[in-house]
Amino acid sequence: MGLTEAPLRLPTIDIAPHLEATQSNSSERAAVSKALHEACVEYGFFYLDISKYVDPGEPEELTRLAREFFFLPQEEKDKISITLQDNARGYQRLKENVTNGKADNHEGIDIYRPVGNPDKSKTLWGENQWPTIPGFREKYEQWVEKMRKLGMIVMEAMADGLGLKEDEWKEFRSQVEDSFWYMRIIGYPPLPNDYDGFSVGAHKDYGCLTLLYADPTRSALQVFLHRSGHTVTDVNGLPDEQDGEEGVWIDADPIPGCVVCNIGSMWEVWSNGLYKSTLHRVIHRGANYRIPFFFEPNFDANVKPLPAAIAQTGDVQVYKPVEYSKFLLSKVSYNFSLEGM
Ligand SMILES: N=C(N)NCCCC[C@H](N)C(=O)O
Ligand SMILES: O=C(O)CCC(=O)C(=O)O
Ligand SMILES: [Fe+2]
Question: Domain Fe2OG dioxygenase spans what residues (predicted)?
């Protein structure tokens, strides 16, 4: 059946009741937590309505600043190249990022949580490199702070949706409250029709939660629902049960006032596979900018299935523990190399 079935649509969830917890909105909050739970079981993807949290002018200003940067001559952009730092923080040229052995048709700036003792000889452990455009750093740092707080709010709502008790949440929270967050500012030129690759090839996100501010271009971000013949393994390197015979790519077109949200592989581990981190890819035929913010675990988090999740998945721990830092490093070191794929 696959492609002829009824259109699949990702759910939209308004986070407003969780922005301010009051006695009177506790049933609304519970409904939101339940909706998050269902979206994560079913899709691993949803729209998060943040219109009561973010003024639309804010990401529009970020887009304007991004345009100003990406319109600079190549040699100006290369002054903050990732190769001058820790091979992760800074600017990457068009086709420098690699996914599934193919160069991606995008350029971007990657910013990570700063570290106290930077050492650029260690991958990921250098310093962020910001454009010198007036206001750029300041505006983007404000955005990071906003998204980081939002990430924590959503994590708490999700923990509630999964049924964690107060003390279980406290334990869980300690694994993410010093999030090793990550932000990308991505410039997409139109993907040529004859290009043997993608704007971003099919992948899963690595950590907890991605909060994507997307430009209006349609059919750009595509989400893989129900299974195909892809040879993808899960976070533990096991064959992924998502990879059956059939599947369908659906468009996750932007909705005004919402960020597109998806869960990363660490949620798959915490939930013992109850929540799936879903494959997605980008085929961007327009020319514009997108800003994903990745709310991730603490760098040193040891991620393992939560007892509450094991209890809901047949009382058997299926997923092995994962050290987030090792997992992240293995991913990032493949992102900029066509070797060893
Ligand atoms: N979730 C993150 N960090 N997204 C960044 C890009 C994903 C594609 C990357 N080349 C890859 O193969 O993973
Ligand atoms: O630009 C997009 O729509 C999504 C980008 C993405 O999936 C990523 O950077 O991980
Ligand atoms: Fe992604």
Answer: 179-297
**Is the complex ipTM more than 0.95?**
yes
What one-character-per-residue DSSP string does 64-105 give?
A: HHHHHHHTS-HHHHGGGBGGGTTSSSEEE-TTTSEETTEE-S
Residue with the two structure tokens 């523990």? 321
Ligand 1 atom at minimum distance from 182 CA:
3
Domains, the chain, ordered by start: 25-332 (2.60.120.330)
Among residues 56, 50, 183, which one has the least CA distance to residue 108? 183
Residues near ligand 2 (Cβ within 6 A): 184, 186, 200, 205, 212, 214, 220-221, 280, 282, 290, 292
- Alpha carbon 34 to its chain centroid, in Å, reads 21
Contacts of 173 (CB under 8 A, 6+ apart): 155, 156, 159
**pTM assigned to the model:** 0.94
**Ligand of minimum distance to the alpha carbon of 294:** 1
Phi, psi of 62 (to 5 degrees): -60, -40
Cα(204) to ligand 3 centroid in Å equals: 6
Asked which of 30-34, 41-45, 238-242 is least confident by mean pLDDT, the reply is 238-242
The finding on whether 205 has its CB within 6 A of some atom of ligand 1 is yes
Residue 103: pLDDT over 60 = yes
User: What is the per-residue pLDDT across 273-314, written as a single tens digit (0 to 9) for each?
Assistant: 999 899 999 999 999 999 999 999 999 999 999 999 999 999
Best mutation site among 89, 112, 184, 200 for ligand 1, i.e. most ligand atoms within 8 A of its Cβ?
A: 200
Q: Judging by DSSP bridges, how do beta strands 288-295 and 248-251 pair with one another?
A: unpaired
Inter-CA distances, 67 with 56, 176, 186, 275, Å: 17, 32, 10, 36
Q: Quick: pLDDT tens for 59-82.
A: 999 999 999 999 999 999 999 999
Cα angle 5, 9, 10; round to 5: 140
Query: Are the CB atoms for 47 and 13 separated by under 8 Å?
Result: yes
pLDDT (0 to 100) of residue 231:
37
Mean pLDDT throughout 46-51?
98
User: Ligand 3 centre from 148 Cα, in Å?
Assistant: 17
